[in-house]
Amino acid sequence: MTLEEAQQSVDTWIKEVGVRYFSELTNLAILTEEVGEVARIIARRYGDQSFKKSDEEVDLGAEMADVLFVLIALANQTGVNLTEAFAKGMEKRTSRDKDRHQNNPKLR
């Protein structure tokens, strides 16, 4: 699925199943909540925190997909074309960081 297809899929789902978009501010709060859920899993799985019984079976991929869904919803409602925005971001990183990471001794 392309980013364009994902944006269309989210838009269709929201209009047909979700009735309407939540406000941008509400979606920002939901996005923050979803990112926090991803952070909780990573902190326990790859960091120093131990799992709570309720966290042991949580699917990291599903939580990341929740983040993506809300981010796409925000892009849709604010008129952001994620395909174009992502391409521009990759170009920016490539030109800005062309030598930066290659010359970083911390990454060797």
Automatic annotation (TrEMBL):
Annotated source species: Rufibacter radiotolerans
TM spans (from-to): none
Compositional bias ranges of the Basic and acidic residues kind: 89-102
A UniProt-annotated Pfam family: MazG
InterPro entries: MazG-like_dom (IPR004518), MazG-related_YpjD (IPR012359), YpjD/YvdC (IPR047046)
Name of the protein in question: Pyrophosphatase
Sequence ranges assigned to domain NTP pyrophosphohydrolase MazG-like in this UniProt record: 23-100
Coiled-coil annotated residue ranges, if any: none
SUPFAM superfamilies associated with the record: all-alpha NTP pyrophosphatases
Region: Disordered, residue numbers: 89-108
